Amino acid sequence: MRLSYLLLLTTALASPALAETAGIEKDQLTLGFIKLTDMAPLAIAKEKGFFEDEGLNVTLEAQSNWKVLLDRVLDGELDGAHMLAGQPIAATIGYGTKGHLITAYSMDLNGNAITVSNAVWEAMKPNVLMDADKPVHPISASALKPVIESYKDEGKPFNLGMVFPVSTHNYELRYWLAAGGINPGFYQSGDATGQAGGDVLISVTPPPQMPATMEAGTILGYSVGEPWNQAAVAKGIGVPVITDEDIWKNNPEKVFGVTAEFAEANPNTMIALTKALIRAGMWLDADNNANRAEAVEILARSEYVGADAAVIANSMTGTFEYEKGDKRAADDFNVFFRHNATFPYYSDAVWTLSQMRRWGQIETAHPDSWYDETAKSVYKPAIYEEAAKALIADGLAKAEDFDFDADGYKDPTSDFIDHVTFDGTKPNAYIDSLTIGLKGNQTVVDGAVVN
Question: Engineering a disulfide at 196: which of 186, 227, 343, 445 sits with its beta carbon 3.0 to 4.6 angstroms away?
Fold first, then answer.
């Protein structure tokens, strides 16, 4: 008996003190997600006991699509969810479904790709720079332009898919196309298709349906997160031509979103949730991704992503496969903690807003101050910092792991495929510097850009 007590005492002293967050207002939570690899922080926080350590009993529920997920959060059926980075921003400004959402945690960086059908790839290849028999990456959309023009000459539409109008996937696809001289089309009042004046027709397809929709010929390519690009490679029906890391290096992808009302009513619960999710991100990136094989096994389960483990591993364990046999190093394809991945930077929100304005989802011009105020109404770094400092006090993290000196804005960067510099504090100058898209006071009327 004495020996058992001593062993328990020794174990307790050797382990970090797990200080459950005090004063939790709501400990039974239901959180939503879409079956994508980047929902990983939620699955890991549950499976590794990080939610439980904080005194939270969490149920995770897969949702059929992003619209259903958003509606259920706004209606209170879900307490929070894995969200597209643009969803809390769009809802808050009233684009689409209206409702004030906030985020205190960015779930990941990178993680998307653009895939085209085998037929489109074969038509693109003569325009792609090759090294022996392998394409040189990144591949510019200029290689796709002659293919689109040939479809137009034959009177055929060039259809592409993305997951949701305010998704990073939509903006990355549009950015890549525009950088290659292709007009992706505009949104206009009363028309939410985003196809006005476009050289292509971009429409919404739910992520898990992307490969089958392309195989059926309904779309010729798509922009989506994993594992649905690698699924096209595994099925032999398509070729990823570029990852979002090459469109915008270390771009924000998903966030954990809740209503502002939930955050205000449950401040301690928010801290507990954020602590658990930070720990999950740390675990996913620890020791040069040493835990990724275990993460793949967890994500492959039917209750989470439910895809073949080998397909998930293709992009989750430091590589990315473009064509069968053309597997390349991609250490930062999925980033869950390093590079300050989880910090909710205002500048990330401003970039999303800049693209909404660029393509007409925001119909009129606004001063730079509006972008700043809008970003600050949605992104809540103060909650994140409180959670991170609590983890440090618990002995579960180190101060040097975090960017506590940030003013909420990253330094200007030109890590884009077109090398245009983005400064989050000067969004209007940035918008005006882009070659294709609305500028200044321009708007879209009857499919035409007018001043």
Answer: 186
- What are the helix and strand counts (H, E) for the chain? 19, 18
- Quote the CA–CA distance of 410 and 51 in Å, as a whole number: 29
The CA distance from 383 to 379, in Å, is: 9
Angle made by CA atoms 300, 35, 238, in degrees to the nearest 5: 85
Average pLDDT, the chain: 94
What 3-state DSSP class applies to 425? coil
**Type of residue found at 184:** P
> Which of 439, 105, 437 shows the shortest CA–CA distance to 254?
105
- In this structure, what token pair is assigned to residue 5? 């007590």
Q: Could you tell me the two tokens for 38?
A: 């980047």
Could you give phi then psi for residue 330, rounded to 5 degrees?
-150, 65
Query: Across-strand partners of 72?
Result: none
Query: In the chain, what are the domains?
Result: 23-110+252-401 (3.40.190.10), 112-250 (3.40.190.10)
Rg (CA), the chain: 22
- Of residues 18 and 307, the one with the higher pLDDT is 307
User: Do 106 and 274 contact (CB within 8 A), yes or no?
Assistant: no
CA gap 289, 287 in Å, rounded: 6
For the chain, what percent of residues have pLDDT higher than 70?
96
- Give the residues across from 102 on adjacent strands: 258
| Rounded Cα distance, 171 and 162, in Å | 9
Q: How far apart are CA 218 and CA 383, in angstroms?
A: 44
Provide the pairing of β-strand 254-259 with 101-106. Answer: antiparallel
Contact in structure between 113 and 66 (CB atoms under 8 Å): no
Q: How many CB atoms lie within 10 A of CB 3?
A: 7
- Above 50 in pLDDT, residue 3? no
Count of C-beta atoms within a 10 Å radius of residue 210: 25
19 band by pLDDT with thresholds 50, 70 and 90: low
d(CA 192, CA 178): 19
For residue 92, pLDDT beyond 60: yes
d(CA 68, CA 74): 10
Q: What is the DSSP string of 267-312?
A: HHHHHHHHHHHHHHHHHHHHHHHTTHHHHHHHHTSTTTT-S-HHHH
End-to-end CA distance of the chain: 83
Q: Which of 116, 90, 257, 254 is nearest to 173 (CA)?
A: 116
Residue 12 has pLDDT above 50, yes or no: no
Positions of E strands within 147-286: 159-162, 186-188, 191-196, 201-204, 221-225, 238-243, 254-259
